[in-house]
Specification:
This protein is of the alpha+beta class. The chain folds into 3 domains: 124 residues, no CATH class; 50 residues, no CATH class; 97 residues, Orthogonal Bundle (Arc Repressor Mutant, subunit A), CATH 1.10.10. 41% of the residues lie in helices and 14% in strands. The protein is globular and about 60 Å long.
Length: 352
């Protein structure tokens, strides 16, 4: 055993001696602040000690997942997970693999662009680098993605404790990888690792708990088994939501993507109107409300009163227009076009 590995094992063993299962009922930040590492100015080490405690619980059905939010060394939002970097590569055991998939879904629901998500090795733990994730939605999305009897809590590292590491290897699924989920089975069929498969599915609006995926999906994922294709740069111009130059259209696309990810399609699957305002800055609430009302007038959303409150849903018959707006920023609805402040991504300005 190398000295570095010995040191890491010793630190985790030390954490286990101080922390016990009863601590999982507490707030993770409170637990971390009581550890000696935090007191001596090493909050990142204290956070990793709490990850070690949570990791031992992921094999239970009623697990508690603790994650830490912060910033990566290159300025992106990051979530550190109680899933070992080696467990990510192997996509095993089943408990950590399932927790990872659920957290990837939570990141998408909180606004992260799945196409730009990276998995890094943060001193032995999985770190998700999440460009575009909205901090206001993070804990809510994480809780929804890990339903009862599981529990998920997100704590925040101090600003002076950046997270980083080398990319986690994601080879094709090996013999020991978890094929029990539809994602794992699909990854095995296309000769890829489940993580890029999951991210591609999330980009297309799928959930990760489908019992099976149609054959057409398998065809679209074929390039994931080709490392050269995976390393190719994004085509220009970028159609990514984060690159949309119009803040109102950017908000509209994020709202629709979020509702689609939550399966709020049809009047039987609605959510509060105020949910459409989440993620907007304090000085942008008026614009966010105007965008929400325009989406209703344009027919992309439907409205269903519920106990005196306004509830909305995605109109099933408008799904082609919804996908066009999410994927490319395109719409021909005059109610929306009047709100935009610039052409769609990659489109040159047109004369008025």
């Amino acid at each position: 055993m190398t000295p570095a590995r010995t040191g890491r094992t010793a630190r985790r063993s030390s954490a286990g001696a101080r922390l016990g299962v009863a601590d999982l009922a507490r707030d993770p930040e409170s637990v971390a602040r009581a550890l000696p590492a935090w007191g001596r100015g090493e909050p990142d080490e204290a956070a990793r000690e709490t990850l070690a405690l949570s990791a031992r619980d992921l094999h239970a059905r009623s697990y508690t997942l603790w994650a830490w939010a912060g910033s990566t060394v290159d300025g992106a939002a990051g979530w550190a997970l109680p899933v070992g970097a080696g467990q990510v590569t192997a996509f095993a055991p089943r408990g950590p693999a399932q927790a990872l998939l659920r957290t990837l879904r939570a990141a998408r629901d909180a606004g992260a662009d799945p196409a730009r998500v990276r998995l890094l090795d943060w001193r032995g733990w999985a770190l998700l680098a999440l460009p575009g994730v909205e901090a206001e939605l993070a804990e809510h999305a994480l809780g929804d993605a890990h339903p009862a009897p599981a529990r998920a809590r997100l704590a925040r590292l101090p600003a002076g404790a950046p997270m980083g590491g080398e990319p986690i290897p994601l080879p094709p699924l090996g013999a020991g990888g978890d094929r029990a989920t539809a994602v794992g089975d699909l990854a095995a069929r296309v000769g890829a690792h489940p993580v890029p498969v999951a991210l591609a599915l999330l980009s297309d609006g799928w959930t990760l708990d489908e019992p099976a995926y149609p054959t057409g999906v398998e065809g679209r994922l074929g390039t994931l088994s080709d490392p050269a294709a995976a390393a190719a740069p994004e085509p220009e111009p970028s159609l990514a939501i984060d690159d949309d130059p119009c803040p109102r259209r950017r908000h509209a696309r994020r709202v629709l993507r979020r509702l689609l990810g939550m399966k709020k399609v049809g009047p039987g699957y609605h959510t509060e109107f105020d949910h459409l305002l989440r993620g907007a800055p304090a000085d942008g609430r008026a614009d966010a409300r105007a965008v929400a009302e325009a989406l209703l007038r344009a027919g992309l959303l439907g409205e269903k009163p519920s106990v005196g409150q306004r509830h909305v849903y995605l109109r099933r018959e408008a799904l082609p227009e919804i996908h066009a707006l999410i994927d490319r920023g395109e719409t021909d609805a005059p109610e929306l076009l009047r709100l935009w402040t610039s052409p769609p991504p990659g489109r040159p300005p047109t004369a008025s």
